[in-house]
Specification:
Length: 165
């Protein structure tokens, strides 16, 4: 892994999010931060509507394959327990592990993504979204997950809060 200038990445995020005039601009700032710090071939943000039982794609780096405004039913599986109930990151580093919880694993694989980190975004005690970063097999090592926890988690909350305001 190449050395990362975390301070420069955070400064660029701060500048971009300060200037953001829309949800897409706030999410783009977060996407750029994630790509700079840990890499992300695919980056999406899914909002959560537990009443309707749906997750809605609020932002995507790949509008052709994963359009914004697309919805998915909330599935009550191991992923749900980890992300929704326990509010922990879900990490999978093989397409086989992704296939266990995501029915669209074939599309994910076809995009060259075989690893994922799903970040639960909790505001005011409520899970409001997940930030989803995907890359090649084995990409999200413990070191990269630690970088996400330390440098992307709080900016994710900020971007989601701005998008909701």
């Amino acid at each position: 892994m190449l050395p990362i200038d975390i301070d420069a990445a955070n400064a660029a995020f701060d500048d971009a999010v300060t200037k953001a005039q829309s949800a897409d601009e706030a999410y783009l700032a977060l996407q750029t931060l994630a790509r700079t710090i840990v890499g992300a071939k695919l980056f999406t943000v899914m909002t959560v509507d537990m009443e309707a039982g749906l997750a809605r794609r609020a932002y995507t780096s790949d509008p052709e394959n994963y359009p914004a405004s697309g919805t998915k039913p909330i599935r009550y599986n191991d992923w749900f327990d980890i992300v929704h109930r326990e509010r922990r990151y879900f990490v999978a580093n093989t397409i086989a592990d992704i296939a266990k919880v995501f029915p669209d694993y074939e599309l994910i694989d076809s995009l060259g993504c075989q690893s994922v980190v799903n970040i639960p975004v909790v505001l005011r005690g409520v899970l409001v979204a997940t930030v989803n970063i995907l890359d090649v097999e084995g990409h999200y090592t413990p070191e990269r997950v630690s970088l996400i926890e330390r440098h992307i988690s709080i900016p994710a909350k900020l971007a989601c809060a701005l998008a909701r305001s």
